UniProtKB/TrEMBL annotation:
Gene3D superfamilies: YVTN repeat-like/Quinoprotein amine dehydrogenase. It holds the Pfam family Lgl_C. Coiled coil: none annotated. Residues 1042-1076 are annotated as: Disordered. WD repeats lie at residues 242-283. GO terms for molecular function: GTPase activator activity; myosin II binding; syntaxin binding. Keywords: Exocytosis, WD repeat. Belongs to the WD repeat L(2)GL family. Residues 1063-1076 have a biased composition (Low complexity). Residues 644-1051 form the Lethal giant larvae (Lgl)-like C-terminal domain. GO terms for biological process: exocytosis; Golgi to plasma membrane transport. It comes from the Eukaryota. This is Lethal giant larvae (Lgl)-like C-terminal domain-containing protein.
Amino acid sequence: MFTSQAVKSLPDLSLDIAEPTDWEASLLRIVEYHTNVTAVATDPVSGLLAVGTTHGNIHIYGSPGVQCIVKVTNPPGLRVKFLQFAVSVFKLLCIDGHDRLHVWDCASAGRPKLQRISAFGQPVNAIVTSPSHTHAFIALADGEIKTYDLLCLRISPYSIPNQWKLYEKKSLASSMSITDTAGSETIIDMAIHPRDLNLLFVLYEGGVLVSDLKEQNTVRAYELILPPGAPGGAGFHAKDILVPRRPQATALAIHPSGHLLAVGYADGTIGFWALEDEDKPLSLRTLDSTGEEDLSAVDTTKLDQVLSSPQDHPAEPPREPIFKLAWSGFPNSSDPRGGDTVLTVLGGMPIDATSGLTALLLPPLQPPAAPTTTSSQPANLAPPLHPETRTAMCKSLIVKDVYTYGTAGPVQDFLLFPRSTPHFFGHFDPSTMLIISDSDLPEARTSEAFEFPPPPFVAPPQSPSSPKASAASAQVEEGLDPEEALAKELALTMQSMSMTDEARTARLPPCLWSILGEHLAKVDKHTYETLVRDKLAPIDGEASFPLKGGVAWSEDSEGVMKYIKYQPHRILVTYLRDLSVRFLDVSPQLLVSGGPDSPLASDFPSTIPRLTIELAPILIDHTLGLSLTNASSAGYDPRLSRERVDAVHFAPESLECATVMRSGAVILHRLDVPPGEGPVGQQSLPDEELVYLAHILPCRGLRYSPAFAIKPNKTRGLVTACALSDAGFLAVAYASGSLLVIDLRGPRVILRHDPDSHSNTGFLHKHAEAEPFLSLSWASCSMSSDPAISLRLFCSGASGATSIYTLQYHAPNTWTIAQPPVTIEGATRPISGGSFVLDAKTGMRCRGDRAGLAAALHKDAAADETRKFIWVSAGGKGVRCTLNVNGERVAKAEWGSKVGTVQRVEVVGKTDSCALVAFTSLGNALIYTLPHLELIHTVHLPALGSSDPPSVEDSGDFATHTVFPAPAGSSARPLLSTELHTLFAQRRAGPYALPLVDLAYDRGTVPPQPQPVSLGPPSVMGSVLGYIGSFSGASAGDQIDALLAGPDRPVPPPTSKTAPRPTSTGVAAAGGSQSSVSAATAGMTSGVADLYNRLGSALAERGEMLGDLQQSMDSLEQGSKSMVERAKRLAAQQSAKSWFGF
């Protein structure tokens, strides 16, 4: 085949990047999304959040830029089972899938340092710490409780045997004893008394025991035994209602005063017990019990009615067990016993109820002083609970209000974020609640956050209809003319209408988003400044998320930080499972840092909250016809249906955003629409395919507003391709072969292409009209058959037949499309986004943007005739270049059979040169020259974790994704991570490394241990007695540490040397009962130089590893000595009898 002179004269557009050394691919940063959460924890003193995952990674987040990862090792990848901050010593504790305890020092310079891994020889069921001492209680599967010294990093000699076995032996003679007690001695949870460190609550399956640590005995036992006839949670239809029953205990919470405890049971009931009365619960209720209903009492009348005619009394649906309880107090009362409290309940709902989390508002616990009694009472025993006091306590348990947090799926866990104090189990005065729930996929989790407590639990402002408000408004109206008075009354009315009882959602960090897909876009400086303007301004219905701990900085050892400012700005446009579109800033300028004295000022990636697009309010309105799901029922929420976002198209100049739904609907949003523009109510559009949306206002603070949508149509089918032009045009292709082109200025449909309504005039034209278009792209160019530069739409089908539609302008401001289209041959099986038009001289992309529109409107015939263009068409088999779109073929290349499937192609430019890059499924990037398509280099990339094609922008940066493992055919595949790569890594990779952190920076002090309060009024001298009649009062943290560690406590090892601070704030020592902890910590400061510190740390780590190996060998040796083990068990049983005075 002969090559014409016109083709020979084409310049080489890849001259400056034609060598393999010009290309250097590198992974820049992995952005992880935690859809595999297994445990979460927060430190209220420092403001940090820790997230544990199924793969053994623990991610710590804090102030802007603060993020670091610690990993479960030896072996790696074990599931994080329990996660907790030890606030008193600022350490992170983790129990892994092999039931080993990992301890990290969070005060270590640079990153948390692993200090010790300890094994306990059997499964760990629970772990609990206190902000007031330095020991952790660890409950084992056999019912024994070990204590662990967090300063000395060893198991302390103090232990608590299985108390429930001993308790059952003691209570065998009871007339209400339960014969079936299998598994009742298993420990479910533990809790340290919030105001008396000497008392430890242990939740067994059989009930709750309270241990006195100093006396080493059990002082209270709360065992719920339902008498025959009591309904409990199963109701009167229970098969065993006529025999005594003991529901399995499943959850525990302590009232902030310390005088009440709530116990959850497997039948969905909650038992409220007085600390001073273990004989009978104050109340037993379910979530929907009313008034003073007590399900532990026997109602003989109702029982007889149900047993005599069960068909007339339908059985209630079974309930979920109570999985978790949290009892929150607030600084809302001058009474030291506190004011209103909120009990948060996970579980307890009927199994057919909508998923959610329940909060109960309870009255203050403020019983009056009990009448004095003359009966004698042993000095070492607490006085019995007076009937009047018991009655007052029961009234304090009558629920004032109930609020249910609706969730996307069944709730698995929740975490409260207190404003300041870590005491009261981290549940006091919380501002935010994080909820972890199930998703559509097994083992996948969805995170949601809400403000806490719910708005109805807080005293609401006066409404305009209240008498006081009416009087105030009447005073305001005095002296005003009728128009001003009417305006003020209208403003008050609108304010009352805007008030809502719904809890605001909290602004989650991106790591907790459930992302289904995303698109990487490069934007210029002006566009970037427009997008990020006032990005942190408040948004109605959204609360902040409390992350504030630590400081982060990057080291510039390679001296490349100064080059970051020359990099383009980049945006990630993401779409989520909750039918929202959110924007992330991934610009490298966010990584600029000058060391500890110039810390990072922003997260990476950084959210742009005001650009959020909420699609649910649009889809939920069934009158708009945008959802194919039947949405006529009240309370319908499309987030719970099969609605999904398939793709998002973002125009980087006009900043319009088109969202393609799986139903076939396409919704267009515009940025910063002036308020009051356009009609107020819903309008009908002249085209039946379009629906008007501009009357739907977004939440105040959000900048994107809906403009219009293309309705789904079963005849047209699903969307196969979509192209959004910066010049104001939108093209959408459908599976039926239909094509719609919309002029966004109307909006108005300017082309309806239906393959059934056109006659075929040629072979290529026949294929173009009979098959759906798989690739759409806009360009501003001329063709061999039409030398005038015009806006053109390229539409390619699977056979390679490409129809080119040319737009024509008619004054005033009217656009049409010339018919019939020009049909040419392109690459078969076209790749979406694989059609490009380049200037043959400069290699610049000729897009259908504003510059292309200007060139099309201001035609210069002489310039147009001399200008040449190259059309690049890429498909599944290869790529071809054609001169002037439908002129002479310039070159053609086949991918080959060994490179895998080509998923994405892009024209990548650098230093005024460009090349074609094809990304394959085997992790290769094939680089070809333009326009002659000669293979330059094959770059090997990491294998993609997703079958989706990478998202590439034309400067050489691209994003790949790792999706959550999902069964075949799953409708949703959330992302586990996004990997940011570049093809030009020279002087790029350094700043993208995870930053160094100082988690202790600006950390507050641990407040003193809360002191006991009396059950009666503050004037009563009951507070000096402590709890349960103890005259010794509450114990201090150093006393408990001395008790648990024993007399032979070794000297604690030195702590890590902290890094330099950007300021001199530092970490203050804890006050009150924290004096011993502060003294011990102060004694650990080492004055050795940095080099010796590092050498010492390395030797210590080596010693720890050898010590752990020796411990493992010793445990194996001891396991073979059965007689020694038998002797130990006998000795333990004999010593345990002292807990019950045998």
